[in-house]
Amino acid sequence: ANGDPALIADQQTWAVFNDLDTTLSQEGTLSSPSPGLGLEVTLESFVFDKPILEDAVILKYTITNKTNTSYPGAYFGLWMDADVDVSGNDLIGSDSIRGLGYVYNVDNSDTPLAVGLDFLQGPVVNSDSLAPLYAMKFQHQKQILTYDPSNNQYIPRTLGGDSVLLRATSMFDNTKDFPHNNYERYNMLRGLTMSGQIDAKTRNGWYFPGNPIAGSGLIDRTPTEKRILLSTGPFRVEAGSTQEIWAAVVGGRGSDHLDAVSNLFVNDDILQSLMTTGLGLHLFDVPAPEFHATAGDGFVTLAWDTTAEAMIHPYAMASIIDTANGYSDALRVYDFQGYRIYRSLTGLEGHFTRIAQFDKIDSLNTLREWYLNTFSHWESRTIDVGHNTGLVYSYTDHDVTSLHKYFYAVTAYGAQPEIVNHRYYYKQLTPGYVSPIPLNLPILRESPIHGHIIKVTPQAEIARKAGDLSLIRVVPNPYIIRSDEGRQIKFTGLPARCTMRIFTVAGDLVKTLIHNTASNNHRVDETPHDDNTEPVAQETSTETWNLRNENNYLIASGVYIAHIHSSLGDKIVKFAVIR
Question: E strands of 348-405, at which residues?
Fold first, then answer.
């Protein structure tokens, strides 16, 4: 409760365990004369229904020393008996740069999968206490995750002084035998044989660190049931102190057994980078625009703001997916693409129909999105991200019947270009055909329809009372300038005839707009007024302004005041323009 534990994922588990009860046998029938270390471990696991993250289980271990004894040379290890589909044909490998130990299939006789272990955030140590190899390797590992209760998410914090974090320091092949005492366990955690020797199958404590995709280096060539132990250390656990260690079980699926390893590497790279930006459901949200509705006789007008246009793609912030890392393009940090309007007669989930879409004018239109089908073959589907309609901030639905109830939602969506990875290749069913692997991320993301729903009942127009100008709005407000094209704001809910004078907060007149609803006047194209046409007295209407002053110059950023004068009375509204 109250953020303890912090509920930040789609699914979570929580457990606590210790070795404080010295009357219990620690190893069953195996010899273990030591009474235990007096440690308590809290384990939290996090699962996210998000691209890439859906292929991982993130584990947070909080290790507390409940004794008055400090442990200066501690190691922490994760042991895994992976059994990748059929267990008897597995191989293992390690990548000391990624800090990854993994298990994969020797051939394509069963499902092309791969699974690995990675320490995303290891224990905190003083760099002076490390061996020169580790001091150099981990010198830039300075960011740790801390919980921010105000936003219910973990955010990065930079360590001060000489403190750094460890990552994985070795991976042990635990296929053949099991340790029988603490001496053998400790050696395994150090990446040595149980007797404390260097194994010929290792390089600096890493078993089979070659590249199985390229078939180069020291790679495993003996398929059988495999077990691995990934460890990190040495580090100090002070008496009464706590260390936090974040790890992940990461998966990869591909079109063949080596393609699965490739995708495992990509997933692990992105996951590691995401951890530098934070962790929590809100990081992946696409913000829905704030909107309001105005109903009349046979119409409903929706108007919304521009807040969604500042949305940031968290995977792009990770700075891994770009041309420098072998991809055909870079993910766009600001990937806002447009707005969609939905309507329903019931308001129930699954009952909404899209009735309009407005997108930016750019090169993204109809794109292909690649995905692995149930047979582990790459397929593509067409994604419609818009047809360069240009952005608008209001929409009037005339396909309504007065006195009938309607539910509306306005969503924002983002889009990315098609991206492929030129580092890894896969063979399709056509013999000898080789193609770059697509980036297994969705091209389009959208805010949820049910994030904000408005219920509206159109009805016959009731005449305004004198002085009733409460329906007047400026949309969007604030207006955030994204480009020089299509700059405009709208004054909605206006009376049929009025004069609008726009001032700076200092009182300088910026623009005068003479509004007549029957003239269908829009300031963008400077259509002349038709003052001979008499509008309907009770009709509400809209005036569009292109943000240019009386001298036809674009206005500057700032707060502005609009004074609306009509036969119904006067109204003052404020709005902001932000560059």
Answer: 353-359, 366-372, 378-384, 394-397
Mean pLDDT of 306-326: 77
What is the value of pTM for the model shown?
Answer: 0.69
Mean pLDDT along residues 292-314: 86
571, containing H or E segment: strand 569-578
**What is the three-class DSSP state of 263?**
helix
pLDDT tens, position by position, 78-93: 999 989 988 899 999 9
> What is the signed CA dihedral for 385, 386, 390, 396, rounded to 10 degrees?
-110
- Separation between Cα atoms, residue 273 and residue 318, nearest integer Å: 5
Rounded to whole angstroms, how far apart are CA atoms 494 and 570? 11
Rounded Cα–Cα distance for residues 421 and 252 (Å): 15
In terms of C-beta distances under 8 Å and separation of at least 24 residues, what long-range contacts does 66-69 make, across chains too?
66/18, 66/20, 66/38, 66/39, 66/40, 66/240, 67/37, 67/38, 67/239, 67/240, 68/239, 68/240, 69/38, 69/239
pLDDT digits (tens, 9 = 90+) for 193-232: 999 999 999 999 999 999 999 999 999 999 999 999 999 9
DSSP state of 109: S
Amino acid at 451: G
Q: Which two tokens stand for residue 142?
A: 């300075």
What's the length of the chain?
Answer: 579
Domains along the sequence of the chain with CATH = 11-282 (no CATH), 285-456 (2.60.40.10), 473-578 (2.60.40.4070)
Q: Contact, 378 vs 370, CB < 8 A?
A: yes
**CB atoms < 10 A from the CB of 451, how many?**
15
CA dist 266 and 423 (Å) reads 10
Cα–Cα nearest to 337, from 235, 520, 522, 482 = 482
Q: With residue 260 as reference, give the H or E element that holds it.
A: helix 257-274
Are the beta carbons of 352 and 409 closer than 8 angstroms? yes
* Cα–Cα distance, 109 to 86 (Å, whole number): 9
Distance CA 105, CA 251 (A): 13
Q: What secondary structure, in 3-state letters, does 396-459 show?
A: EECCCCCCCCEEEEEEEEEECCCCEEEEEEEECCCCCCEEEEECCCCCEEECCHHHCCEEECCC
